[in-house]
Give the backbone structure.
Amino acid sequence: MKLPAELHALFWHCNAEELDTEIAKTRIVLEVLARGSMDQIKLLYQIYDNNTVGQVFRADVKGNRTLPAPVVYLFSSLYLTEREFEEYKEWHRHPVRKWEQRRVVL
């Protein structure tokens, strides 16, 4: 399935018309959660089910941690357990973390 035109603005750095929603699932979910408007986030949930978005979110929080902290704090109540969220907060509070490079080139 092709990416809806309403989300093309978020993918200015690549050819959004060639993105397939199944192949680039992780990239699309992370980009929309990180930089999308409420309307774009609602559209994301029409494309993917709650479990898929949750799996991508949890994988990022436990792995590369590319999502901005405010996004993690916002969606943590939906997808993280209390313990996982506390572990993320402890990791995020480390004084050197704000200088750490976390974005991954896809």
User: Anything to note?
Assistant: Helices lie at 25-35, 38-47, 50-62, 69-79, 82-92. The CA atoms of residues 92 and 99 lie 11 Å apart.
